[in-house]
Design goal:
Blueprint: H1 11-16, H2 20-30, H3 46-52, H4 59-69, E1 93-96, E2 104-111, E3 116-122, E4 135-140, E5 146-153, E6 163-173, E7 176-184, E8 190-197, E9 205-211, E10 219-226, E11 232-238, H5 240-243, E12 247-253, E13 260-269, E14 292-298, E15 304-312, E16 315-323, E17 332-334, E18 345-351, E19 357-363, E20 371-379, E21 384-386
Antiparallel strand pairs: 1-5, 2-3, 3-4, 4-5, 6-7, 7-8, 8-9, 10-11, 11-12, 12-13, 14-15, 15-16, 16-17, 18-19, 19-20, 20-21
Length: 398
Amino acid sequence: MTTALTGRSTLGDWLADPAGGPLIRELLTRLGQDVSQLGPARVFSLNRLVGLSEGRISQPLVDGLVRAVNDGRLVTGDEPTTTGGSEDPEPVRQGLTLDRIQIRDPFVLHDRRTATYHLYGSTDPNIWDGPGIGFDTYRSTDLLHWEGPFAAFRPPAGFWSEGSFWAPEVHAYQDRWYMFATFTAPDGYRGTQILVGDTPQGPFSPWSEGAVTPRKWQCLDGTLHVDESGAPWIVYCHEWTQIHDGAIHAQRLSADLRHTTGTPVLLFNASDAPWARPLPGVSRRFPAHVTDGPFLFRLRSGHLLMLWSSHGDQGYAMGLAHSASGRITGPWTQDEQALWPTDGGHGMVFRLGDGSLALTLHQPNNTPDERAVVRRLVEHDTTVTIEDSATSDGGCSS
């Protein structure tokens, strides 16, 4: 059964549809946009483009397109299903490989006590629009064969966010497990909330009072960093949709991780990186530079690195930043070239059972094809490189 196109459907879905494709191509041509240059914008919904188009795309225009492909009906995606079935949880499966798991923004936690790897990420079938389901997690002992999904988070009654549940990370801190995840409020402002669980698998429940990032900022992808004195920080993105040149900020957290203290500290802007390019097909007035997915890790030498993502010459990409002082406040310098230059990103680094480093990220960048990729890293004194040899299934055994 073909899913009806709605305002929540992505540009990619519309372009792939026999009826919707010609309409969207005609619209983009009128707006002076080249379909081949859309890049990451293919994952945006039509509804989201209303706010990003600087008045060139209106909600009535979107509604007209929806009616045109649905025999005059304004289909929203909220209509009740006619299958007669209940929304039962997806059954837990064993022996899964990563190519069978749809996931964006992957995060791997290695629980050394149980020699188990836990995989988290944005797991809703459509994370861009529509009601949010929650976050699922998978577990493995070898990074090749996975068991799941297990429900790590489901929104409680009255939860402040209705959809766009993104980029969960889970960190061990003071004998509990804390999930940092991005949610969107009904007024459209995004932020990172902190949740807590008693096991790596959850279930996780709200810990902070809503988002801990600034309320009227468009923030996303918050991550935990514990500095050399043991003080916790949240590092997060101030999104390009609000400031054009996306930024990464750090802010102190209270010792119990319930709220932030002090003021945000600007670490750098996306355009500081020589490899980062403006996002094509979004803004005529100002270049739009993306910041996504900051993740900090310290090498055995003590050198502090940050992995983060943006748009490069070959689409979604991921690079490294370096703290010259070894502290969270920097100053931060950027590599000339992206670590992962082609159609993939929002990654993180973790240690394998043998003590070596591994990288995970999602690739490709289009929904619903994104999958987690795991690759070994070579650790140097002041940087990391991706190991030349890769396993045929995209994984890396422990």
